[in-house]
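## retry 2 of 3
previous attempt timed out at serialization; input unchanged, resubmitting
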Amino acid sequence: MNLLDLLQWPAMATTIVAAWLVASRAHHRREIGFWCFLLSNALWVAWGLHDRAYALVTLQVVLALLNIRGADKNADAPASAQPGTASKAPNDAGP
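## retry succeeded, writing output
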């Protein structure tokens, strides 16, 4: 068994951790999650090229582009647009 054959396991684990982090309400955790996704994309591409799984490689390249887009949107989002940080509008009806 080649060491590259084992690469699928850290790729899978990194993908799961990335999904967990991206689903967080904390801006910083989402940012780390997108970087983890990019690492998992690279790991999957390396494994896919070794295993000649070219559809997987193509999928990972497209997902990497989407992860870059997501990281960019996460970085540009104002603090008021972050989930869990929006303030409630005052109640116009009174007590």
